[in-house]
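Hi there, hope your week has been kind to you so far. Thanks so much in advance, here it is:
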Amino acid sequence: MLDAGDGWTALVPGLLVTGVGVGAATPALAATAMGAVAPARAGMAGGALNTARQLGTALGIAVLGAVFHAGLRSGLGEAGRGLAEPLASGGAGQVLAEASAGAAREALTGMVEAAFASGLRETFLVSAAMGLAGALAAFLLLRGGTPAAAAPLPRPRTKSTGAQDPAGAPVVRN
């Protein structure tokens, strides 16, 4: 997990795993959505997939932003009360610039770093829990069955004319 003294490089392994995972899952999701419906409904499946993806992105950002803010606030404690809003809004540089030099500024810098680490830690834990819940739901809800695309297509209705072609097969008309 993250600590106050960790730099940006501490985030790289998680970002790499996330990037590879999303890159591998996206084509599989599209193929699964298209394969789960009849070919005539492929557009509907693609639209539903993209809508769910956009909704998940918007809700995920909102929920994880709130979790980060709560973690930031809890990391600041009572001593940093009132700093959560400016820090969460990207004002860390201004908050630190306004602090008096010396030991007070060093203490504030340490408190801000610890608060950001606390917010990120809680955000990552909630993200992991949401990912595991999604995987469990997919495992439990998407089991077995034959995809609609694998089912045989219905034969078109035709009427026999009673005539035969030169090979002896009946001639049909639509």
